[in-house]
Amino acid sequence: MKLKIKGTGEKIVSRGLEKIDQILILGWGLIGDLFIRIPLIEALKDRFPGAEITVVVDPVCVAVLENHPACDHVIAFCRDKYPLIKYLMRYISQVMQMRRQHFDLCVNLYYGGSSVLISQLANARIRVCFDHTPALCRANNLMVPRPSFCNNWTLDLARMLVPLGIPLDTIRRGTSFYCSSASSVFAEKFLVGNSSSLIGINLGAGADEKRWPVDRFVELATKVNREHGLKPLVFTNPGMEQLADEFIASYTRYGDAIHVPLVSIDRVAGLMLHCDYVVTGDTALMHLAFGLKRPTLALFTCTRPETVEPEDVPHASCFVAGQDGTDICGNPMGTVDIPLDEAYRQFCNLIRSAKNAAASG
């Protein structure tokens, strides 16, 4: 790997890493984006076990890390610029908070426009990032060539850690989530009286064209219940509450289901731990299921499975190549037109995979 170095970056490469006590990680993005970066946070903690790690995220992502043992501090940094005066006051306050921590190392895993100035103002001694824009090259002193992101995204991001002495083959494909004790108590109370084995159902997706139709979920859940005795535990998605209502209204003609109201991701995790299996699209809750090591049927209705599939949890992927476009690597994107028979076939594969994993310990 050819590195671009300047300033203290030369010392990193030629003399080895100096003492690292404070690490700042810039991790803005969607919840799913943060989940795929968690193995990198864990790898940094393993590499520098005595260091305190602070992660900057969007406010909606705080819960993903607040119980994670590799993360010592989480800064909720809102990038909404309106109203402008409040944004500027908040910005200055949080930058000053970062500077007071005297970071030795800043790893910019966001590498978008919002991160350039923060990389500079946080004033870490070592600042690592990809090298694909002049602004990033000016803001950082240890640059790594930007990968293609045509393969697993976690491993592509992990290339940024190689000059820090973290080999790519030590990075796992997967993620983690740690429930609070309060969420475990909530789940026990919520499910009191239920004696059935459960299958978690996540209906939501970011846009209509990315959602597997609710009636297909109902048909799949009905068949799974009939053949395997699994009761649906249906999660409610923010801004898409009608999907869960529609599922429950349709499914009650065939059997009982448990409707989970809109709750925090921590409480969703507590409930998901009671599920034998999870069925979900490529959303934040798919990554949550992977992080909880729940056997998961993932419906890739737009994205491609190879970019995010984990290696440490039983899973099966449904993907049908679409005709409407390709990704940045020229590969066809998925389509919502996944046949019911294919989804059920993959679910049966998932059952076998989960049983084999359990038998092997």
Automatic annotation (TrEMBL):
- What is an example of a GO molecular function annotated in this UniProt entry? ADP-heptose-lipopolysaccharide heptosyltransferase activity
An example Gene Ontology biological process? lipopolysaccharide core region biosynthetic process
Q: Which Gene3D superfamilies match?
A: Glycogen Phosphorylase B
- Which Pfam families does this entry report, sorted A to Z? Glyco_transf_9
Annotated InterPro entries: Glyco_trans_9, LPS_LOS_Heptosyltrfase
Keywords linked to the UniProt accession: Glycosyltransferase, Transferase
GO CC terms for this protein? Answer: cytosol
Entry annotated with the keyword Glycosyltransferase: yes
Keyword flag Transferase: yes
Q: What is this protein called?
A: ADP-heptose--lipooligosaccharide heptosyltransferase II
Originating species: hydrothermal vent metagenome
